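seq as requested:
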Amino acid sequence: MRSPKPAPSWSPRPAEASCPATPAAPPAIWIVGAQKVVPDLGTALRRVEEQCLALESARAQAAYGQPSAINRLLILNAEPYPGRGTVLLLREAIGF
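struct tokens:
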């Protein structure tokens, strides 16, 4: 009788290695429409749920036949590594 195969010696990459806005990633550039600037985090989260989700859901329904959902949110609180990310704030509305 054969013995079972040993478990693989590798493991999946950690989440921070696969997300472009985490410490293991190269510098990132975010291009942001001025309409997305709000006074605080609570207002931002409400905007995502009440405005952005509705617009994105309609777009996804038309394109893929199914609505969208809020599955992941990235909140940048502070940047301990200067130069890691750049935000280009446009004076026009882009995206939702």
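The radius of gyration is 19 Å.
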